[in-house]
Amino acid sequence: MTATASFRIDTPAGSREVSAVHERHGSGEPVVLLHGIGHHLQAWEPVTGILAAERDVVAVDLPGFGASPALPDGVPYDLPTVARTLGKLCETLGLDRPHVVGNSLGGLLALELGRQGLARTVTALSPAGFWSEGERRYAFGTLRAMRQAALAMPLPVVERAARTAAGRAALTSTIYARPARRPAAAVVAETLALRDCTGFEPTLAAGRDALFTHDVPDVPVTVAWGSRDRILLRRQGVRAKQVIPKARLIRLPGCGHVPMNDDPALVARVILDATR
């Protein structure tokens, strides 16, 4: 079920109202799913049904992405602010220290929620924030190129391309190792999500200085990395393990940057194991 939660956050300019769109499925211990930059909550669709058989699954559109409106004017998209906003969303939804799972930007946010004591466990799939400066520039350049391509393509061109395996590869092979597996309608929807998101540029601007340098000693952490990740190179997972020594580091064979589509069964198993 899709719903919108509205709540207030404290900012330097005073209390401001924020809204976030989310979908909730299943029952059991709560698991919050956070997508990456330019994406939307539907990124999790390949694994949501599997998880919902055992968990209360809440997939969230981050502020300024998907159907969630942008943060209010003057509210930064930096890591502490967005993490606090997500913490307030969880409080509004009655989720007391849920398990938090994130991909890319969502993985970085999940780790920050764990650091702030707002998560029961953290599962980070190719999380941002463990890059060298050169790797960050490469990743941001790749993301900007994807965004410019999405902005330049009329909807009929996107729809026509998505009907063929070659077209889906052209549109999404940067994030998926197996783009042909993605349904045509999903490829169209996520291309439009990348084109239309209001949070893209402010998130990239805030991310220039984003490094995760803190241990998360009191929360079980799992870090998983696709062996075919073309945006955040898998050696960054080794750095994550160095920063968070007790983290469990898992390789996802044959998976790209957004692994939920490439191997749903494997990713769901990693999440379920990590949240037990």
From TrEMBL:
It holds the Pfam family Abhydrolase_6. The keyword Ribonucleoprotein does not apply. One of its GO terms (molecular function) is hydrolase activity. Gene3D superfamilies: alpha/beta hydrolase. Signal peptide: none annotated. InterPro entries: AB_hydrolase_1, AB_hydrolase_fold. This is Alpha/beta fold hydrolase.
